[in-house]
Amino acid sequence: MPRSAPPDQDDPTLAVRVRDGVVALGELLARADPGSPDERVGPAHDLIADFLHSYFGAAAVADAHFAIVRALAGMGQADPSRSVAAYARDRLSEHLWALGQPGAALLALPGLPTPADNLALQQSWHEKFLEALGPDDPITLAARYSIAAWTGQAGDARAALELYAALLPDLERVLGPEHPSTLVARGDIALWTGQAGDARAALELCAALLPVLKRVFGAEHPNSLTARANVAYWTGQAGDAAGARDQFAALVPIFARVLGAKHPDTLGARAEFATWTGQAGNEAAARDQYAALLPLQERVLGAEHPLTVAARGNLAYWTGRMGDAAATRDQFAALLPVLKRVFGAEHPNSLTARGERAFWTGQAGDAAAARDQFAALVPVFARVLGAKHPDTLGARNGLANWTGQAGDAAAARDQYAALLPLFERVFEAEHPETLAVRAALANWTGRAGDAAAARGQYAALLPLFERVFGADHQLTRIVRAGLTE
């Protein structure tokens, strides 16, 4: 839609006269930002459609929608204004829907700024599909899939898991148990099972899915290789970092042979191999592997490709794990403007990097600055992702920790006491994240002056840590040591 009042230095009354004309046309025009210098106007499509339908029939309306779709699709070859580009992004699906192309309408739905916004958009379109197409139409099922995915992205892993679990039997019935969409949904059930806190069950689900994928697609089909990578990943998440490292070590040359050494999936497998090498105890090797991988990703994928940006973050992380907190803080500070440019200032990736910068600021010796950065970050996480999203809870965890590290043990204790019920509700009582918060609560209880209460909390925690982590795990040893303080 054009701006309603183009500047004209020779006729200062033009803007007034244009706006008067816009008002006079009334409902024939659609208006955005009315009365402002950025006001935009355009034809009221509903009225025009009704007119065309009344005088020329349905075919004329379809022709109009087709012309709009063709024009919007051609904008990739032009340089539209911001308002025109926004219209193309936001309204293409509606014109495709009006043309009777529901599948294309679903694919053309715009990406919105937050997971919650995308979830609401998908839910509204699912209602359209359900009413027009019925519950068993593949497009309706695809919309349900998107709702489940965005539910998880919005932070509710258990609700996402429930939605996928309810969807799976319908996919099996309508499409078949070995249809690609059905198998993808099985993989997502495994993913959200793990995200909901049960890494071992996720591993079992991935392991059960792998032979099906091999039979349907072949042992070295990319889908099967991705499933093998998922088995390796959840092996690590279930506590066997060395096993994950070894599985990725075996997978990398297969990815390279099948897809090519420079394929993004091959580079991703190399990144996972580096990560699990570090998690298995060789932090220097992880740092060195990321240092070797990063230039290749920059050359092949580009400096601002998401995988490249992720590798920069991982290189920074393992640099810090090797003891150079100040260098890691500075690397995350340098990475932040890149993330904001690539993803947006409030994208979860950008917010996560802000959290890393805050953490390593504290690790580098400035606890008060770390506390203040987390204090500024928590409300942004809550607004963008939701108050109960795991990343929001992680930021609150950081705020509590650095509040204590900055000298206020009692406030840290109180913040952890308030956090614990949320972690128990979001992650469940024996999830590693919840147990870590309980251990932090015990720590700050003791440091706030109540040693007896802290010992009681550690005593209750010890058998849980031994069962969940193992008797010799570093975290279990820390809890055991707390009993003697």
Features:
485 residues; mainly alpha; two-stranded antiparallel ribbon; 2% strand
Structural class by helix and strand composition? mainly alpha
| Number of alpha- plus pi-helical segments | 23
Query: What is the N-to-C order of secondary-structure elements (H for helix, E for strand)?
Result: HEEHHHHHHHHHHHHHHHHHHHHHH
Subunit organisation of the chains: single chain
Rg from Cα: 27 Å
For the terminal residues, how far apart are their CA atoms?
70 Å
Beta-strand share of residues = under 5%
- Proportion of helical residues: over 70%
Task: Give the biggest beta sheet.
Answer: 2 strands, antiparallel
Tell the overall outline. Answer: globular
Query: What is the β-strand count?
Result: 2
With strands numbered from the N-terminus, the spatial order across the biggest sheet is: 1-2
Uncertain stretches: 1-7
Mean pLDDT: 88
